[in-house]
Amino acid sequence: MKKWMALRHYIMLLGVMVLFGLLTVLFEQRFAPFWSFIYSFLTMLFPAAAIARSMAYSESRHISDALDAVDFSNPEQSPMEQELASLAQKIQEQNDIIAAQVDQIREESVNRESLRREFTANVSHELKTPLTTISGTAELLRSGMVKPEDVPHFADNIYRESQRMITLVSDILHLSELEETSSLLKMEPVNLYELAQEVLEWLQTAAEHQQVELQLEGTHSVISGNKKVLSDMILNLCDNSIKYSNPGGCVRVQIQKQDDQIALTVSDNGIGIPKEHQERVFERFYRVDKSHSRQIGGTGLGLSIVKHGALVHQAKVQLHSTENSGTTISLLFPCTDSTV
Fold it and tell me: For 156, 162, 200, 336, which has the most beta carbons within 10 A of its beta carbon?
């Protein structure tokens, strides 16, 4: 079709040129050479311009009609001329990319909704348990069914459960803050050795109560990070190690440089984590032994806070644990210009 259109334009151009050539010959016989030249030039210019316009219009209409016939949602299946095949292929590739991105966004939306529902259900359950205990104990006290000598015991139950609720709400708020404001956190040079030393001093009383020894080893290493978040990460790791260690055990914190990373490692010789649970211990509210966790006051959010804190600092988390032998968790921070 395109060849016939070009042939038609060439025939038109030839015919016009022959016509105006004859007119030029007749004009030269009657007028001076200069005006004859001007006339010849104009007689060639205007027809050529008219024919060029006609050809451009025809070509544009041809391309427009070809594009109108293309189904852009599936261009490779549409009838078209060879000149548009490469364009159709690129459009198809872009359609495939956009479709994949839409599917990914839809899947992420479904996953977020699932996580939100699971989180809401877990929070409701975790809050309901201590509230039920507090409500039942208070009801007994109000009814006068408790002997005077037993009142301190029941009051202690109320206090313990209320503290558990306070800790739970605090951890939930902390985790939400990490997720929502991670990009706004202020980063500054932080000495991991000094920070770990402060955390261990704060946990010394809890360690003595559990009859667990605390040790700090390594060198002074400085990274770029948020001091409060880093402190909470170390606190949760050490607190877990203390709670899940046997009397007479040891919790060791080591800080050392490994190639292009700064490693902060917390290890213990406690009860360990069974292999089938190790992939899930960083999930929210996940507990290996729920009854034991509640007895020691765990919320199930400590390692989740560690995980999100590591993401904020672009750090890697490594877990090695053997049941009845102990657990080692390492945080690998990237070295920066401020690293010492």
Answer: 200
